[in-house]
Each structure stands twice: as C-alpha cells, then as structure tokens.
Amino acid sequence: MLIKKAIICKDVETFKINSAIKKTHLPKAGDVAVFKVLKTGKHDSIQGPNGNNTYIFEGDYVMLAFGNRYATGQFEGYVPDGYLNRYQILGKGGAVGRLESMNVKLHKVGATDLRLVGYATDTDGNVINTKYMTKSEVVFNPSTKRSPKIVLSIGASMDSGKTTTAGYLCRGIMLAKKTVVFIKLTGTVMSKDKSFVRDCGAKIALDFANAGFPSTYLCDEQEMLNLYEYLLQMADHVKPDYIVMEIADGLFQKETDMLLRNKEFMSTISGIMFSCGDSLSAMQGIEILEGMNQNILGICGLFTISPLLVQEVKEKTNYPVFTLSDLSSPSIVKALPQTVVVNKTSSKKQKELVLA
Does the global pTM surpass 0.70? Predict the structure, then answer.
C-alpha cells in the first residue's frame, strides 16, 4: 500500500496500521492515522514531508494527524469524540478531523472527504502521537533571562497582513546586520509562512509544528506557554538579536486573547506590531490593546497599500504607521526599542520617530 504522508507526520517512520481499534480508540490531537481519500475538495494536495505539494486523488491512502482548526477564511473543525463514517482534511499540512463549518466562499468546492483505515501504532501497539515526538516538553519559566527582543506580530483578523508584516520586519532587521528568528506560535500546520519569512531574512523559522502540533486551537494555557518556551529554546542556538513572533488569526480568537491577557507571557514581549485590513479595524484594535495596557510599536498590515486608509489612521492616532518599505528598511531597528509604549501619554513621541 502506497501511503502519501503529510508534513506533520514526517517523523513517523516505523509503524503498523491497526484497523481493529478504529471504532473504539478515542483520538486526541496529534494522533496519527491512515485514511483513504473518498472525494477531493478544497485540498486536492497535501504538504509532503519535504514541504512540497503532494497531489492526492480518490482512492489514495494518506497519513495525517488529528487536530482542531479555527480559520475564519477557511475551515472550522475538531478532533472527533467518536468514530465517524467520514472525516475531512482541515489543513494542507496534515490536520484532519470533523468539519464543523466553512467560509461561504468554499461551499462550492467543499472539503476533502476521507475514510479511516486505521491508526498508526508503534512497536508496543500504542497509537503514535506527533506532539513532542522527537524531544521532550519543557516548562515555561517567565523569570528566565532572555537576550533577544521579542516583537509580536498580531492582527485584527485572519488575512490582515500579520505574516507579511513579520517577514518584512525580519528583512529590515537582517539588512541592519542583526540576527533575527521567526516564530509562529499559533495556527494550523503548513510551512508556507515559515518559508516566506525565512526567505525574507530570518536566520531560522520555527512554529508549533516543530514540536509536533498539528494545530494549537483549543490548547490550554499551560500547554501554550510550554510550547512557547520550547520554541524559544530551539531559537537559542543561533543567538538572535531579535525574535519576531506571529500569533495567528485575530484579537478575538481564543488562544490569541488568552496569551495577550497572560501577564507572565507578555512580560517577555518587547512590543506589538498590529496588522489591520482597514482603518476601522485599526482603531478598534488599538482600543482593545490599550485596554490591556499593551505596548503597541506600530500599525501595519493590508490597509497600508491604500494611501487614503493610511491617512485616515494617521489622523486618528499618534501611533506610527509602518508600510512594507518602512518595515524592510534597516532603520527599523532604531524604531523597535524606542517605540515601546506603556500608556497613551507616551504615544505622541512615537509619531516624531522618522525612519531614514
């Protein structure tokens, strides 16, 4: 049997397919299984172990890992609480589960449907789980002295420009001859964002999938903090001057909100680059972040392609607006330590900062 393996399962080498437990085993996030493709939809390919597209067809066998997904522009899906006649691919990197809802734009094509063949088990008969498969989990320690400045790239919503902001910021830092690492802390497995930011200039690019997480949706607070510590320790060996870290989706998303409200987590963060799709979301987002007493470094994102929207935001706030050319300028490193804001009264000084 030829099995097409998704990137989240790249470390699964020796395994057996146990079909006897497919109706009795209650899957957990990260559990690995083999499926038969019944119908292709949105996902007519998966990301293979090397990151390249692996096209799939009806009748193919694929190895994926169970995971939850939250994506307002794509799918909402969950690890099932029992055996199903059909499962759906939730993400190209190999997350699979029960589809709950989808964006209307996807209704015509639909999801890719699968039938469970059996779970992948190890030599002891245990179901293989991708989480911390190759290394052990570590415990978050907020008191650890950390040398790199950590800048968050967050946004008002999905597709607001967070990854582009992170990538161009990494480019500016690299052009300033500083070492920068990119971390994507939350989301659903797919290596496209890491590849983009690495090509922009990040020395290395890491995400939750480096710890074997198919996704981070519905992870509890301690699990998220420990994952953060794990990725920081992975970044240590290149001794970065800066870490640019993206948190996926928008301010109202569960894990994003949870992390932003965690004082120990935020005590490790130098400041926030906030990406928005339009002027209204920029202003509403600023109000929310100020209500949390967050350090807003600047406003970025999709809206900056429109001079009119940039003008609207500049007229309504004293925070600097950074276009892609600003972010990718080596002068951005002068802005990073100086644009940390602790309250509204200090934000006026930000606007006076001019990038060369």
Answer: yes
